[in-house]
Amino acid sequence: MVLPPRIPRPSHDGSAPVRVLTVAGSDSGGGAGIQADLKTMLALGAHGMSVITAVTAQNSLGVQGAWELPAEAVRAQFRSVADDIGVQAVKTGMLATAELVETVAALLADLPAPVVVDPVGVSKHGDPLLATEALDAVRTKLLPTATVATPNLDEVAQLTGVRVESENDQRRAAGALLGHGPRWALIKGGHLPGGEAVDLLTDGTEEHWLRAPRHDNRHTHGTGCTLAAAIATYLAGGYEVPQAVTAAKDYVTGAIAAGFPLGAGIGPVDHGWLREGTD
Ligand SMILES: Nc1ncnc2c1ncn2[C@@H]1O[C@H](COP(=O)(O)OP(=O)(O)O)[C@@H](O)[C@H]1O
Ligand SMILES: Cc1ncc(COP(=O)(O)OP(=O)(O)O)c(N)n1
């Protein structure tokens, strides 16, 4: 297992830690969403902050209910942290509705910090986390704010119409996604068959193929959230995009290898694997 780097922590000399913000939904089961993001940020050495967009009743079997917050509550949370504490990178996840997508995109457009957009559409169990009517706002408002956009295969098909079944399709999907304005596209191949989990990162000029052994572990709840939150954390720590994504891939690969059963269904990845691996 490749051990990803940790962001250096302040040494109690009065300096502030690296600060990362997640704008996402709450997963009551603790494996995905806000909870996954904050655990990832802590594991990698950063101070995590949250803007909650929606609350889900969720466990290892699926999503039993979802309630979005008013746009005003999302704006207020964002201003509270951005105007006082300061944000060095942002990750967006579940945004639920077109109104919240537009609200968040407007807030990000004025923020001088890198943005990782995980265009969350449905959960692993097939539960919808984004209204279909919101797809257009994701394309036209949210993707242009992204430093990196990180769709899985279903999400990139919904956003671009490109169905991915091969590495060559990943390249075509990335090109189509870049047409909507993110600086980099990361097309995650987690749902492709094969002995490796292969993701393509490209800005249209450089191509980075990120390959990791596929772990035969059904406890993979939260993989996409964890990867995107780790990328944001490394960007906040000053890494360039290819280095941030490579380190984040190493972190999520270790977390998937250590994923554990909880409840009767799909358990979470282990956000704490790095600490245990190096203590
Ligand atoms: N079984 C697995 N073994 C190793 N890596 C995986 C596995 N499943 C997914 N990944 C990786 O996890 C990350 C998240 O991808 P994916 O699961 O496709 O996202 P999402 O949760 O959005 O569907 C990607 O880097 C992908 O390659
Ligand atoms: C509240 C919330 N946000 C996002 C997701 C999807 O998370 P993801 O990391 O893609 O993991 P899976 O659900 O696919 O396992 C979620 N479930 N809940």
From TrEMBL:
Keywords (A to Z) from UniProt: ATP-binding, Kinase, Nucleotide-binding, Thiamine biosynthesis, Transferase
Membrane-crossing residue ranges in chain numbering: none
UniProt-recorded Gene Ontology molecular function terms: ATP binding; hydroxymethylpyrimidine kinase activity; phosphomethylpyrimidine kinase activity
Source organism of the structure: Streptomyces antimycoticus
Ranges where the Pyridoxamine kinase/Phosphomethylpyrimidine kinase domain occurs: 27-270
Role description: Catalyzes the phosphorylation of hydroxymethylpyrimidine phosphate (HMP-P) to HMP-PP, and of HMP to HMP-P.
Reactions catalysed according to its record: 4-amino-2-methyl-5-(phosphooxymethyl)pyrimidine + ATP = 4-amino-2-methyl-5-(diphosphooxymethyl)pyrimidine + ADP; 4-amino-5-hydroxymethyl-2-methylpyrimidine + ATP = 4-amino-2-methyl-5-(phosphooxymethyl)pyrimidine + ADP + H(+)
Keyword Transferase: yes
Gene Ontology biological process terms, A to Z: thiamine biosynthetic process; thiamine diphosphate biosynthetic process
Name used for this protein in its record: Hydroxymethylpyrimidine/phosphomethylpyrimidine kinase
Matching CDD domains: HMPP_kinase
InterPro entries, per the entry: HMP/HMP-P_kinase_dom (IPR004399), PM/HMP-P_kinase-1 (IPR013749), Ribokinase-like (IPR029056)
Pathway membership, UniProt: Cofactor biosynthesis; thiamine diphosphate biosynthesis; 4-amino-2-methyl-5-diphosphomethylpyrimidine from 5-amino-1-(5-phospho-D-ribosyl)imidazole: step 3/3
Claim: Transferase is one of the keywords in the record: yes
Gene of this entry: thiD
